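Severity: low
Component: inverse-folding endpoint
Summary: output formatting inconsistent between runs
Steps to reproduce: submit the following structure tokens with default settings.
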């Protein structure tokens, strides 16, 4: 499962985000969202696997982003042209849904 999660991250286009739940659904079980979060927190290679592109179901960034905290996640998203307001992204605008 871990490999599937990290490989999924590689498919997210520039300027788009996904939710933990979307990745869990991709894995076949929506209830695995917390497991996905734990796997992302233990990402073995931040440069290769862009876990900063994953937000919660409300578009909120992670207070516990493993690679520098919420400010670093915000910075990385903004570098891709994603507008972050109050540590939240507009899922109607930035959520990637064409992964299936």
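Observed output (run 2 of 3):
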């Amino acid at each position: 499962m871990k490999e599937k999660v990290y490989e999924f991250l590689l498919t997210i286009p520039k300027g788009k985000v996904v939710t933990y739940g979307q990745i869990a659904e991709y894995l076949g079980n929506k209830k695995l969202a917390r497991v996905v979060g734990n796997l992302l927190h233990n990402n073995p290679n931040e440069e290769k696997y862009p876990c900063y592109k994953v937000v919660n179901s409300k578009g909120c960034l992670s207070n516990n982003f493993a690679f520098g905290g919420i400010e670093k996640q915000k910075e990385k998203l903004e570098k891709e042209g994603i507008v972050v307001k109050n540590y939240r992204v507009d899922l109607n605008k930035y959520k990637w849904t064409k992964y299936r």
